[in-house]
């Protein structure tokens, strides 16, 4: 096994995170900002899709209840 901690041609999460950080550090501020804005837009679309799915399965939910369900779903992802 080479010194880069790869096994079966699969990179460990720790190595992948380190690679991401290296790439981000080489990017200009403008490029990092542009990437952050694109990621935010994608996350917003994902949240809207999740809201639509929750609403389709629970049409009687109020807006606050819907947002609470969405927050619960997001919390599960973060605990993952």
Question: What do these coordinates show?
Answer:
The chain is mostly helical. The chain has one domain. The protein has 3 helices and no strands. Helix 2 (29-57) packs across helix 3 (63-79). It is elongated and about 50 Å long. The mean pLDDT is 91.
Features of the shown structure:
80 residues; mainly alpha; 3 helices; 75% helix; 0% strand; elongated
Enumerate the spans where pLDDT stays under 50 for 5 or more consecutive residues.
none
Main sheet makeup? none
What pattern of helices and strands is seen along the backbone? HHH
**Domain module count:** 1
Which term fits the overall shape? elongated
**Helix share, percent:** over 70%
Q: What is the mean predicted local confidence, pLDDT?
A: 91
Strand share of the residues? under 5%
Give the termini separation.
29 Å
SS elements, strand count: 0
Structural class: mainly alpha
The helix tally amounts to 3
Rg of Cα set: 19 Å
Put the structure in a nutshell.
This protein is mainly α. Helix content is 75%, strand content 0%. The chain has helices spanning 13-26, 29-57, 63-79.
What is the element layout, followed by pairings?
Elements: H1 13-26, H2 29-57, H3 63-79
């Amino acid at each position: 096994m080479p010194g880069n901690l790869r096994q079966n041609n699969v990179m460990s999460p720790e190595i992948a995170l380190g690679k991401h950080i290296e790439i981000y550090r080489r990017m200009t501020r403008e490029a990092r900002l542009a990437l952050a804005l694109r990621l935010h837009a994608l996350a917003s679309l994902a949240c809207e899709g999740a809201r639509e799915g929750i609403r389709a399965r629970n049409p009687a939910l109020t807006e606050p209840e819907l947002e609470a369900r969405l927050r619960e779903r997001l919390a599960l992802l973060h605990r993952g």
